[in-house]
Specification:
The chain is of the alpha+beta class. Strand 7 (110-112) and strand 8 (118-120) form a beta hairpin. It has 7 helices and 12 strands. It has helices spanning 2-10, 19-26, 71-79, 92-98, 171-185, 194-198, 216-221, and strands spanning 31-32, 34-40, 43-49, 52-56, 61-67, 81-86, 110-112, 118-120, 125-137, 140-152, 158-161, 164-167. The protein starts with a helix and ends in a 12-residue tail after the last helix. Bound molecules: flavin mononucleotide (FMN). Flavin mononucleotide is lined by residues 33, 47-51, 65-67, 70-72, 95, 99-101, 160. Residues 33, 47-51, 65-67, 70-72, 95, 99-101, 160 line the site of flavin mononucleotide.
């Protein structure tokens, strides 16, 4: 296959990659999801963006690529400031909201950053930046920002891959999961051990980790969700 492509290139028949093909191929590069926010003339602006990249550690810098048609990008060009809000795995709704138009800030928990930018209070991390350079690239403007303030919490990020939101699975968690499944299948671990569901919860167990029982009435209401038994998935 690659031999054919090279042959075509050598013959000077290289065709231009169209935007749909490029989108499809580059979509295989998994990323996180951010919401870029800025306030300009007392008006908040915000847009969902995945084209965000760390650039330099000394000084701390990052870059954001925004379509020239983005009203948020135009506000950043004027305000010379912006904030990057890194979304957590439960924030796909916020990502969709800020990818739309209209009043995106209604219903969001917004806090004021140290450097004065509107920040998403429930984001996994917030970084406030000052624009130090603006570069044009095709349909987009690349904003190079020096990071002046940054805070981060614990939790997993929202992931984006081939046009879909998802969860990041850490290798160590994946390996632990496979190890447990292998041990259950080899009967090293008992399946459906009743003693496990009747024992008292340990002091270190979080409520979510405790065994739950589900009565038919609560099942009908959907008020408690029993975890799947081992081997059912
Ligand atoms: C997951 C996701 C990632 C996106 N990433 C970018 C991006 O990196 N740059 C960009 O210009 N638009 C991106 N968009 C599209 C913008 O969010 C969208 O065009 C938005 O309506 C722009 O809003 P604004 O004009 O109010 O700034 C993305 C959308 C989604 C759903």
């Amino acid at each position: 296959m690659s031999v054919d492509t090279k042959t075509a290139e050598a013959a000077g028949e290289r065709r231009r990659l169209d935007s749909n093909e490029f989108r499809d191929i580059i979509g295989r590069f998994a990323s996180g999801v951010t919401v870029i926010t800025v306030e300009h003339e007392e008006q908040p602006y915000g847009t969902t963006a995945s084209a965000v990249c760390s650039l330099s550690l000394e000084p701390p810098m990052l870059l954001v690529c925004l379509n020239k048609s983005s009203s948020t990008g135009q506000a950043i060009a004027a305000a010379r400031r912006f904030a990057v809000n890194i979304l957590g795995e439960g924030q796909a709704d916020a990502a969709m909201c800020f990818a739309g138009k209209g009043d995106k800030f209604a219903g969001q928990r917004i806090v004021r950053g140290v450097a004065g930018q509107p920040l998403l209070g429930d984001a996994l991390a917030n970084l406030e930046c000052r624009v130090v350079e603006e570069v044009s690239g095709g349909t987009h403007t690349v904003f190079l920002g020096e990071v002046e303030e940054a805070t981060g919490g614990h939790g997993a990020p929202l992931a984006y891959f081939r046009g879909q939101f998802g969860r990041l699975e850490l290798k160590q968690d994946d390996e632990a999961h496979h190890d447990i499944r292998a041990r259950v299948h080899s009967r090293e671990l008992p399946v459906g051990d009743r003693s496990a569901s009747t024992r008292s919860p340990r002091s270190w167990e979080s409520p979510a980790a405790r065994p739950t029982t589900r009565s038919p009435s609560s099942a009908a209401r959907g008020s408690s969700r029993a975890p799947p038994t081992a081997g059912s998935s």
